[in-house]
C-alpha cells in the first residue's frame, strides 16, 4: 500500500467523519475535498474540478428546473391532490401509494428526476395532512433507488452490466429481466418503511400554535360558508346562454352570486373571474355562492336549463390552486365606509366577490350586499389569487389582514399545464428511446418549459439546489483518486482471494457487500464498471452461468441506502427531510443487509447458477 493511497483513505475517513458530525456543512466539506486532493498531488486541478463538467451534474440541475416547472404549472400539486384523495387520512396508505408511484415512474426515467419532481409534492401533502416530512422523504428516496431495479433502462449500472455480458459473448439481459427482483425488493421496502418510519420521529408535524397560519378551511368555518356552494352547468338550450351577468341580475332575483366560471376551450379548462359584462356560454360551469338559501331554486334550475353538478370539496377547496380567499378590513379613511358593496360596484372594480362580512366577531348573512359598511368590518373576498394580491396594493381603502396558507401552493403558470406535460413527455420519450443522451433530453425539456412559459429564467435559477450539486461535485474526485492510487484494484483482488472457495450464495453475498461498500464512495455507475468484470470472471472460474453474478452486481449498485452521499437521490431529500448523516446509516444499513440476504437467495433461484 503506497503513501498516496494511505493519504486518500485518510482523507476519505476524515470526510465521512465531518459528514457524520454535520460540521461544517456538507457542501463546505465537499469544497475542502476539491482543494485537498490537488494540494496533496494525488490529482491535478483539472481532475479535481472535473465534477463541474460531469454530465450527471448538469442532468441533475436540469431536472430541478423540470420539477419546478411542474410545480409552477400546478401539475405537482395535482399529483399531491390525487395522493391525498386516494390516501385519505391514512399515513400508511399514503406511504404505500407514494412508493409505488415513484418506483413505477423511475423504472422508465431517471430516478433522480422522479425524486426531484416529487419532493414538492411530498412537502405539500405532508403539510396538508399535518405529517412530519421526515416520515415521507426517506421512503421517497428508497422508492427512487428501488426503481433502478425494475427495468434494464431504469439506471445506468443495469446498462453497464448488460454491456459487459455482451462483451463476453453473452446475449445480455432483456428489458424486464430485472423486474422480478425489483418487485420483490419494492414490496420488501414498503413493508420495511412502514416499520422503520417510527424511527424517523413522531407522525404529527410539531408546529407552534403562534406560527400556524390560517387556512381556507378556517375561513369557511368562521364565515359559515359550508353548504352555500353550488356548481351549475348551462345545458344546451339554456335561457341564460348569451346573456351577461348584469342583464340576468342573479344576485337580486335568485340570491345567486357567481364567484367564478369554468369554461372549456380546445379541450382545456379555463377558470374565469366574472364581472357584470361577462356573457354566459353553453357548457359553462358556474361556481355559485348561495347567500339567500331561503329562495326555492329547483324550479329556476329547470326553467333556466341549469344542471346541478356534484361538489368536490368544501366551498370550492378543490379549486384552491386558482381561486383563493382573503380577509380584508376597512381602515378609518376607506372610501367604502357608509356605502354598500352594490353601490361601490365592488366586483366590477376589483374582480373579486364579497362572500362574507364579520362585525363584532359575528358573521352576517342577511342583506350582505346592501349592508352599509362600518369601520372595523371584516370582509371575506373570493377570486383569483392575482386579484387578491392586487388588492394588497390599495392600502388606503383596504387592509388585507392575512393570506391563507394555501397561497404558498398557488401555481403562477397554471394555464401552461398542458405544455409542461408535453415537455415532460418529450423528455421521458427521449430518455426511454435513447435517441439522445439523458442530459440532452433533460436540457431539451428545460428549453421547452421556457419556450412555453412554464418557467422563467429567474425561477429556473432559483429552483436549482446548489448545495446538493456542490456536494456531488466534491465527492466525484474520490472515484478517480481511489482508482489512480490502486485502492480499487487492491479491494477487488482481495475479494477474489477471500471468496474463491466459498459456496455460491456466500460468493453472491460477498459480491453484493463489496459492490455496495464501494458505492458508498464512488458513483454507482463507476462501481458497476469496476465490479461487473470481476463478477463475470468469478463465474467463469467457478464454471457457473455469468447471469446471476452480473445481476447481483446490478442490484447492489442500486442499493445505495446507507448514506446521504452514496446517491444523488439521497442527497436530494437530505435538506427537505431535515435529516442528518446518521439517519441514513440507522435506517439504510439494516435495509441494505436485508436486500443483500434476499438477493443472494433469490438471484440463484430465478437465474440458475448452472444453465
From TrEMBL:
The record, for Pfam families, names: CitMHS (PF03600), TrkA_C (PF02080)
Its topology with respect to the membrane?
A: Multi-pass membrane protein
Keyword Transport present in the record's keywords: the answer is: yes
Q: Which organism is it from?
A: Zestomonas insulae
What's the protein name? SLC13 family permease
State the compartments where it is located. Answer: Membrane
Pinpoint the RCK C-terminal domain residues.
217-304, 313-397
Q: Which residues cross the membrane?
A: 28-45, 57-75, 95-126, 138-161, 173-195, 419-452, 464-482, 494-512, 549-567, 587-607
The UniProt keywords, alphabetically, are: Membrane, Repeat, Transmembrane, Transmembrane helix, Transport
Amino acid at each position: 500500500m503506497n503513501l498516496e493511497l494511505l493519504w486518500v483513505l485518510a482523507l476519505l475517513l476524515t470526510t465521512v467523519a465531518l459528514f457524520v458530525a454535520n460540521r461544517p456543512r456538507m457542501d463546505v466539506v465537499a469544497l475542502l475535498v476539491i482543494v485537498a486532493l490537488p494540494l496533496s498531488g494525488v490529482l491535478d486541478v483539472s481532475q479535481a474540478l472535473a465534477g463541474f463538467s460531469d454530465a450527471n451534474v448538469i442532468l441533475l440541475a436540469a431536472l430541478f428546473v423540470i420539477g419546478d416547472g411542474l410545480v409552477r404549472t400546478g401539475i405537482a400539486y395535482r399529483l399531491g391532490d390525487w395522493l391525498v384523495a386516494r390516501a385519505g387520512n391514512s399515513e400508511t396508505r399514503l406511504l404505500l401509494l407514494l412508493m409505488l408511484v415513484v418506483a413505477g415512474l423511475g423504472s422508465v426515467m431517471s430516478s433522480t428526476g422522479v425524486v426531484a419532481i416529487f419532493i414538492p409534492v411530498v412537502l405539500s401533502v405532508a403539510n396538508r395532512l399535518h405529517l412530519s416530512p421526515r416520515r415521507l422523504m426517506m421512503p421517497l428516496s428508497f422508492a427512487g433507488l428501488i426503481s433502478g431495479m425494475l427495468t434494464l433502462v431504469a439506471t445506468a449500472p443495469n446498462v453497464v452490466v448488460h454491456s459487459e455480458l455482451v462483451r463476453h459473448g453473452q446475449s445480455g439481459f432483456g428489458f424486464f429481466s430485472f423486474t422480478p427482483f425489483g418487485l420483490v425488493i419494492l414490496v420488501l421496502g414498503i413493508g420495511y418503511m412502514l416499520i422503520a418510519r417510527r424511527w424517523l420521529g413522531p407522525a404529527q408535524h410539531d408546529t407552534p400554535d403562534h406560527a400556524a397560519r390560517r387556512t381556507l378551511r378556517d375561513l369557511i368555518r368562521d364565515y359559515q360558508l359550508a353548504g352555500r356552494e353550488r356548481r351549475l352547468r348551462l345545458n344546451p338550450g339554456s335561457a341564460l346562454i348569451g346573456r351577461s351577468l348584469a342583464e340576468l341580475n342573479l344576485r337580486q332575483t335568485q340570491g345567486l352570486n357567481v364567484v367564478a366560471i369554468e369554461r372549456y376551450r380546445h379541450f382545456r379548462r379555463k377558470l374565469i373571474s366574472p364581472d357584470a359584462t361577462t356573457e354566459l356560454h353553453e357548457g359553462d360551469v358556474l361556481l355559485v355562492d348561495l347567500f339567500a338559501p331561503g329562495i326555492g331554486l329547483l324550479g329556476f334550475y329547470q326553467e333556466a336549463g341549469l344542471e346541478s353538478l356534484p361538489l368536490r370539496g368544501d366551498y370550492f377547496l378543490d379549486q384552491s390552486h386558482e381561486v383563493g380567499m382573503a380577509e380584508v378590513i376597512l381602515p378609518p379613511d376607506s372610501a367604502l365606509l357608509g356605502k354598500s358593496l352594490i353601490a361601490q360596484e365592488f366586483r366590477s372594480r376589483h374582480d373579486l366577490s364579497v362572500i362574507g362580512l364579520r362585525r363584532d366577531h359575528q358573521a352576517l348573512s342577511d342583506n350582505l350586499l346592501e349592508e352599509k359598511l362600518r369601520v372595523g368590518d371584516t370582509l371575506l373576498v373570493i377570486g383569483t389569487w392575482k386579484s387578491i394580491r392586487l388588492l394588497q396594493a390599495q392600502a388606503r381603502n383596504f387592509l388585507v389582514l392575512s393570506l391563507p396558507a394555501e397561497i404558498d401552493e398557488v401555481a403562477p403558470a397554471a394555464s401552461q399545464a398542458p405544455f409542461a406535460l408535453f415537455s415532460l413527455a418529450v423528455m421521458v420519450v427521449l430518455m426511454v428511446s435513447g435517441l439522445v443522451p439523458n442530459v440532452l433530453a433533460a436540457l431539451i425539456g428545460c428549453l421547452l418549459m421556457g419556450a412555453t412559459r412554464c418557467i422563467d429564467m429567474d425561477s429556473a435559477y432559483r429552483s436549482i439546489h446548489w448545495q446538493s450539486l456542490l456536494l456531488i461535485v466534491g465527492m466525484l474526485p474520490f472515484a478517480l483518486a481511489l482508482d489512480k492510487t490502486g485502492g480499487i484494484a487492491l479491494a477487488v483482488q482481495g475479494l477474489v482471494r477471500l471468496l474463491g472457495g466459498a459456496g455460491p450464495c456466500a460468493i453472491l453475498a460477498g459480491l453484493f457487500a463489496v459492490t455496495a461498500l464501494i458505492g458508498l464512495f464512488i458513483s454507482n455507475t463507476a462501481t458497476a464498471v469496476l465490479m461487473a468484470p470481476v463478477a463475470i470472471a468469478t463465474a467463469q472460474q467457478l464454471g457457473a452461468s455469468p447471469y446471476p453474478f452480473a445481476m447481483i452486481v446490478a442490484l447492489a449498485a442500486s442499493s445505495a441506502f446507507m448514506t446521504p452521499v452514496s446517491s444523488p437521490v439521497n442527497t436530494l431529500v437530505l435538506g427537505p427531510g431535515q435529516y442528518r448523516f446518521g439517519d441514513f446509516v440507522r435506517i439504510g444499513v439494516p435495509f441494505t443487509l436485508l436486500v443483500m440476504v434476499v438477493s443472494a437467495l433469490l438471484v440463484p433461484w430465478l437465474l440458475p447458477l448452472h444453465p
